[in-house]
Amino acid sequence: MDILKFIGQRLREAREFLGLKQEEAARRLGITREYLSQLETGKRHIPMRLLAKAAELYGRPESWFYGIGDTVGSLQMLLRQTEGAPLSEETKRQLVRFVHFCEEIAHLQKLLNYPKPDFPTYPVTRERLEEQARQAARAERERLGLGDDPAPNLADILEIHGIPVIRLPMTEEVSGAMAYDAGMGGFILVNAQKLPTHQLWTVAHEYGHLLKDREQGFVLPEVVNEVNGSKEDAKRKWAEVFANRFATHLLLPEETVRRLVESTGGKPITTWRLIELRRTFGVSYAALLYRLKELGYLTEREFERWRQEKLMALEQLVFGSPETSIPKNFRISKVLWELALEAAMKGEITLSYAAEVLGITPMEVQDILHELEGATVVGGA
């Protein structure tokens, strides 16, 4: 195999996947179009620094350009269908990164002998969709150990049960996605640019898809609708309805909402009560108000009046902006960090590999491991 031609082919594939012309890619890489053309045809050797820059531009790990870690199975299908979809360059780049992180997590889980989670299957029919969404949410609350408690930290709970939640900055066109592969397990993608309230809803919504639609391999509505055409639109619409109703019952279960609303002894719902309820459940004001109207606590007129109020602005004025509880280094994937550090600590991977996976230096990995080992000793004592 001619390695220069192979790398050149990968450079061209990565560029074309994002829909970039040679002139634009060359400009961003800081080289001439002629030089990039020579690299893509395997006539020139690419310096390591330039390869690193190309990997960042295209959203690919450097090892991919050498043929290491090729995507397989359902995740490969996701990238194939994404390539022809009318998505922005940035969204496509982040979907490539999402697939890469899924593969890294699955690889580390295999190294550490982590079992893949079992997903229950719930019956869903159009005629009984609402009741089945409620029953599925209730069963999942029980299975996840939530009981009737609010779940503003749903992502953490899912990750404890082996379902990674990966947050990446995307454009407005995509809120999230679900990916599933029988050999690797299930994964949830969330747009990190969205507000924490929106991210929470996306986690619940995509989890609904993971339970119902995982045999498709992935769910990204913008891709599915474009590729499959009008015949699939109706099927997609009611699948989206199920995911939304599942999210409603999972995050705002009727019994819990009623218990908290009625705990004031029948007093009218005030601004401060709405703020308190929103902070308890973690959802948006739009979702909370709709649920209160649905359960009969707000009339249509009251619902519309509250919708016009700038409740989040008032909440932020009093309590500050709603901050995510995820530490800065865990923003992409808490599970990825935990797996990489555990694997490095056990000697299953090198410090350099852990550093590449986490996007930090080997020295930083070593420092973290030193602190973790010290904490383990203290905890064991």
What does this structure look like?
It is a single chain. With 381 residues, the chain is mainly α. It has 4 domains: 70 residues, 434 Repressor (Amino-terminal Domain), CATH 1.10.260.40; 140 residues, Arc Repressor Mutant, subunit A, CATH 1.10.10; 66 residues, no CATH class; 47 residues. 61% of the residues lie in helices and 5% in strands. It has 19 helices and 4 strands. A 4-stranded mixed β-sheet has the order 1-3-2-4. A hairpin with a 3-residue loop joins strand 2 and strand 3. It is elongated.
Explain briefly what this protein structure is.
With about 375 residues, the chain is mostly helical. It is built from 19 helices and four strands. A hairpin with a 3-residue loop joins strand 2 (about 175-180) and strand 3 (about 185-190).
